[in-house]
Fold this protein.
Amino acid sequence: MSEEYEITETLDVKGASCPMPVVKTKSATDDLTEGEVLEVLATDSGSLSDIDGWAQGTDGVELLDQVEDDDVYKHYVEKTA
Amino acid sequence: MSSETATEDVDSEPTTEAELRARVEELEDTVASLENEVGDDQQKMTIVATQGSFDMAYPPLILASTAAAFGWEVVVFHTFWGLDILHEEKSRNLQLSAVGNPSMPMPNALAALPGMDRMATKLMEKKVDDNGTATIEELVELSLEQGVDLQACQMTIDLMDYDEDDFYDDVTVGVGAATAVQHMADSDVQLLV
């Protein structure tokens, strides 16, 4: 799935729990420009719902995909504005 | 509805050009001020944090930093024991109360023994560490980085004999209940913790 778009940056928040995955994701997307994609690697199972909710409630970002891969939750967030 | 009223008003008035122009200007002003009100779509949250125990320090900081990640404007007004969350030294040493805590796996008579609060706190700190949960200090720094306005109530600073230098850098001091009420009135979400 992740091959459909080019990953610009990867954020590793494995081992960190709420609210770190969301807050660090926000900071990391602030550093991107329009069209760039952030990959977030997390082990917090709550990050699936949290990053989805954050992306829906936040202007200028879009959640492209979420993949569970061997106990690691991968999130792909595009900066859209 | 209001446009009908406006039309009637205009119809009932003399329709000289000057009067009409004045009327149009008046309506333009009204529309502009209404647009200003509606255009303020910046979400705001105000939390009042009154508790300074280890467990009660987490919820306001987690909610504040998360709301800031949503791009919200966030104020946390710390008063009474909530001040300890912003107190650099005390924030590293917040205690969990074993007595009167129904979640503790021990009877109150045992929990009241000397050293039990410290033991309960150590156990909780270990769980926090094992779980990858941030420390209070980390969450304070994180919230400040995210632009959360962490405020320390001036009346309780004086009451508790704290010094402004005791607090983390960038904590807002010199504010009172009126400031908190003003922020609450402007907010979409208000919480008391």
Strands of chain B lie at 44-49, 73-78, 149-153, 172-175, 189-192. The domain at 44-92+135-192 of chain B is CATH 3.40.1260.10 (Hypothetical Protein Ychn; Chain: A,). The interface with chain A takes residues 62, 65-66, 68-71, 131-134, 139, 142, 145-146 of chain B (CB under 8 Å). Chain B has two domains: 2-39, 44-92+135-192.
